Automatic annotation (TrEMBL):
This is Uncharacterized protein. Residues 65-81 have a biased composition (Basic and acidic residues). It comes from Kribbella pittospori. Residues 63-99 are annotated as: Disordered. Residues 210-244 form the C4-type zinc ribbon domain. Gene3D superfamilies: 1.10.287.1490. InterPro entries: CT398_CC_hairpin (IPR056003), Oxidative_Scav/Glycosyltrans (IPR052376), Zf-RING_7 (IPR003743).
Amino acid sequence: MKEPTLNAEPAVQRRLLDLQDLDLQLDQVAHKRKSLPEHQALADLAAEKSVVDRDLVTADTEVSDLQREQKKADSDVDQVRQRKARNQQRMDSGQVTSAKDLENLQHEIGSLDRRISDLEDAELEVMEKLEAAEAVQLDLRTRAEAFAGRQSELETSRDAALKELDEQRAGLGDKRAGVAAELPDALITQYQRLREHNGGIGAAPLVGKRCMGCRMELAPSDLNRIKAAPADAVLRCEECGRILVRTAETSV
């Protein structure tokens, strides 16, 4: 269905270009809000923090397991040492008079000494593993705590930037409302529809012989049509379909 022909005074049509300019500025503000570097930095930080948090859970579990293992190793060594001490006390007290029993006790004490040595080696190995695991745990906790400070800095910077952009958007919005109030509803409706389908530009000036919406130079037949059109006729670019506004820089 062919659109109805619109008419508007030349000054009103030029005012439409002011509306277009304000809309482009609003689009730029919206783009800046979405593309603030803090947004990506916070997303990257969250991804990195997620990895560190996961590794920290693993480190906490490993440290906890090794702490239990160390307690068990300590307990095993203590039990064998106590048994050796009891046997040694029996020997030293003279309670054992049988040569065979003494020989058995000496043999058992020798076995307990070897057992203590093996357990102490195992105990030392667990202690070394625990020390290494605690170092990893401490590093991860330090990194996790640093994330909080970095996140706070980024959020403060982001919020300040958003506040400034929101103030710009509010100011531009007020100006836009004022300009839109001066324009006919039918003209705004057509402009809005064209803007949505043409990358945010619904109206463009004719500078020289070129439409500044599509940057195409118009054909002679189109220029003749424009020249013959009434001053209040709302024209459209034959190349891109946008509203074409004649200005002092138009060469027809």
